Amino acid sequence: MEYRRLGASGLKVPALSFGAGTFGGRGPLFGAWGTTDTREARRLVDICLDAGITMFDTADVYSGGASEEVLGEAIKGRRDQVIVSTKTGLPMGDGPGDAGSSRSRLITACEDALRRLGTDYIDLFQLHAFDAGTPIEETLSALDDLVRAGKVRYLGVSNFSGWQAMKSLAIAERYGHPRYIAHQVYYSLIGRDYEWELMPLGIDQGLGALVWSPLGWGRLTGKVRRNQPLPAGSRLHHTADYGPPVDDEHLYQVVDALDEIAQETGKAVPQIALNWLLQKPTVSSVIIGARNEEQLRQNLGAVGWALTPDQMATLDAASGKAAPYPYFPYQRQEGFARLNPPVSTLPPPTAA
Fold this sequence. Notes:
Number of domains: 1
Structural class: alpha/beta
Strand content: 5-15%
Mean pLDDT: 92
CATH class: Alpha Beta
CATH superfamily: NADP-dependent oxidoreductase domain
Low-confidence stretches: none
Helix content: 40-55%
Largest sheet: 8 strands, parallel, barrel
Number of strands: 10
Number of helices: 14
Radius of gyration: 20 Å
Strand order of the largest sheet: 3-4-5-6-7-8-9-10
Shape: globular
CATH topology: TIM Barrel
Distance between the termini: 11 Å
């Protein structure tokens, strides 16, 4: 397994991480993701550790806390071998204090996560969403206190816009609070919006990308194809409306390119889609999920090799879309591009 520095920090993370969204399996969304119990979770953690995957990502909102509980049981007795990443901020209930990034909410959420995970510290504590109702200064001060208390070691965010992340970083610098080192983002061959603003921000500010849903909400498994019904077991039957939107014809165009490269390389479609991400700038780790051992082992085949420049170019061309304003002049007009060249072709983070 290749290890990379997470953003501008000294924390080394594996190129592939494991997402525990399938653990617990409570509710309509997470029940469709997977229903992995503690026994199955231990087996998946065993396989991950054998392969060098040491980072496990979860969130309090995943199955109402059950994901954290199952992950905590699965890593019991080997806490020192793993990096635990969790998130908070999305609603955990209907009460006024059950969501957001206020001081009260963050302290309570951290204590609850520590209890469910069965640990006394969290390696990476991330805000799951931006809370427009709480002053950023209050949020950062509370997170600073959690770091100083030894309950949290590193901080990150997820699903922030560029201005939200940049304003937070500027305020952290102004007051001497710990800076965010990671941005957990949606990025895939059928979802490249990350490249327009958040990737340049990550390069400039040292934010490492932790990629969620790298297979486009299950669309890049190789099983979703033109003129064919969805596979019977696909989670898209139940969760398509929750995930990132995608135009069907654009999806099939990308799948056609993946099929072409699969023929050339002998690799599976999802392995190619994951490998493409691993060669992109700012990507510190790609979070893979698995309902079972077979899926996990297939995803592990995404590392240990690299697509050629020509194959990367083929996938870039098949998956590319016209940039939105204000980015399209830099894509289409030479004068703009000279002032602000594209960053999506820069090399990925240097291995630690």
